[in-house]
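Lab notebook, design round three. We kept the backbone fixed and only want residue identities now. Task for the bench partner: fill in a sequence for the structure below.
Input structure tokens:
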């Protein structure tokens, strides 16, 4: 969480600068629209300003939505503008929630600010109810590719390859993962605004007051492009949580019989 602690989170500035996060949220909701879910309790992990939490409450009016964020400034902002959902300042890696108490986890671009994904996924497995769903987005390795040569490793949040993310989900006991990638490109005429929005959206540490620009990145129109590779994923907790075992090596092993039962239900096989 060291990179997270180096970000100055201003909810107002974040709301104005987080264009990609907004687009990613729209894509995640479009995926929820074709999933027949009836969650009783929903957790938005990394709620930010609370915009998605409010939408989740409207989308699932019979559900209880819990908005969680580690940044106190974000929780205060979300609470001030909340409509029906609850707010909690907490670390998504250590949630003050009972086992198997959440039916849907919605985590839009939270993973980049968690360096230890195995711990995060282990915690999500703990709180997810049997056959509960986790819907998430992350940043892929092509993110900010135009400017990476001029940035130190600690300048940016964590990036994860789609295939590695899928492997981690399986290793931590999630089943039926579905992953794919979208690319988004923002263009700037003003490099000052480029730097400001990277900082406000949490893409660049506040201590970086300048960014080395690669002239090769300048477009023919005289604008500076910024590429975001966004990885989308959703997966399920197994139906029979009690029989899922974690070995000493940290690898979760699901009995084959559990997977066969799940496939039988999905395919209508008796």
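Proposed sequence:
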């Amino acid at each position: 969480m060291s990179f997270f602690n180096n970000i100055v989170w201003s909810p107002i500035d974040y709301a104005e600068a987080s264009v990609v996060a907004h687009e990613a949220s729209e894509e995640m909701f479009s995926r929820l629209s074709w999933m027949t879910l009836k969650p009783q309790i929903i957790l938005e992990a990394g709620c930010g300003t609370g915009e998605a939490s409010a939408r989740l409450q409207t989308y699932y009016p019979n559900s209880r939505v819990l908005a969680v964020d580690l940044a106190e400034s974000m929780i205060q902002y979300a609470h001030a503008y909340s409509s029906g959902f609850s707010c909690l300042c907490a670390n998504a890696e250590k949630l003050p929630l009972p086992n198997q108490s959440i039916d849907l986890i919605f985590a839009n671009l939270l993973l980049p600010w968690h360096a230890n994904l195995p711990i995060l996924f282990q915690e999500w497995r703990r709180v997810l109810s049997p056959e509960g769903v986790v819907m998430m987005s992350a940043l892929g390795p092509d993110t900010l590719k135009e400017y990476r040569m001029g940035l130190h490793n600690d300048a940016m949040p964590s990036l994860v390859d789609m295939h590695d993310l899928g492997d981690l989900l399986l290793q931590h006991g999630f089943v039926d993962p579905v992953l794919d990638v979208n690319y988004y490109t923002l263009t700037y005429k003003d490099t000052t605004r480029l730097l400001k929005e990277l900082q406000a959206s949490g893409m660049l540490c506040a201590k970086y007051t300048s960014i080395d620009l690669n002239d090769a990145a300048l477009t023919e129109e005289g604008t500076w492009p910024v590429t975001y590779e966004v990885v989308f994923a959703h997966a399920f907790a197994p139906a029979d949580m009690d029989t899922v075992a974690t070995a000493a090596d940290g690898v979760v092993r699901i009995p084959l019989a559990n997977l066969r039962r799940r496939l039988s239900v999905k395919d209508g096989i008796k």
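Keep this in mind before ordering anything: The chain has a mean pLDDT of 86.
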